[in-house]
Write a structure and sequence with these properties.
The protein is mostly helical. Helix content is 79%, strand content 0%.
């Protein structure tokens, strides 16, 4: 039977090993959720403690924040299209949309790095206050996860070009898509609880 036969359900779920790996990754995401929950709680406790450093409303720029949000949420959509193309057995479509997702992800990272550099130049650093320490650790941890996810996706694109859509590569695509969607959800919370609230503090 061809490995691209979808008659028994999505390709990524067609073996017991794949189902177990996907379940294991959901458990991993639960641990990641605990990590980010701790960082959000720390940020909430330290919110407002800017000492002599600039306040967040002085530095947060609505335009750049909205652009970053648009880029990352759009990348979640394109990642979903990639999975759809994979389930239709389209290697070209899968690769195309994964690459678009990567471009959007790297654009997000570019804006975030530029934002961090601007904040540092304005006197907001890890050492300047408890608030900015919490901010950089929370946002930086998310940015690091996005970087790792992008690197993972690049390796997967290379593997797909070599091997095509198989039960193994489809499982990997699905798992990396779960990871990417998770990071987008985390960003929504950062956008609302950090940036939007910070702009009016």
């Amino acid at each position: 039977m061809s490995e691209q036969n979808f008659s028994s359900g999505p390709l990524e779920y067609q073996t017991e090993q794949s189902r177990l790996n996907i379940l294991g990754f959901w458990i991993f995401l639960a641990a990641e959720l605990a990590l980010f929950s701790t960082l959000f709680a720390t940020y909430a406790v330290l919110s407002g403690r800017t000492a002599d450093a600039p306040a967040p409303f002085e530095l947060f720029e609505p335009t750049s924040t909205l652009i970053m949000t648009f880029l990352l949420l759009t990348s979640s959509f394109t990642c979903g299209i990639a999975v759809h193309e994979m389930r239709n057995g389209s290697k070209k479509g899968l690769l195309t949309w994964l690459i678009v997702t990567l471009i959007l992800g790297f654009a997000f990272l570019g804006f975030e790095i530029d934002e961090f550099i601007t904040y540092v130049h304005e006197g907001a650093t890890l050492q300047s206050s408890a608030y900015w320490s919490a901010f950089f650790i929370l946002a930086g941890t998310h940015g690091l996860h996005v970087t790792l996810g992008a690197g993972w996706m690049i390796l997967l694109v290379i593997q797909l070009m070599q091997r095509g859509i198989t039960r193994v590569t489809s499982r990997k695509v699905f798992i990396v898509s779960l990871y990417w969607h998770f990071l987008d959800v985390v960003w929504i919370f950062i956008f609302t609880s950090v940036y939007l609230i910070g702009m009016v503090m």
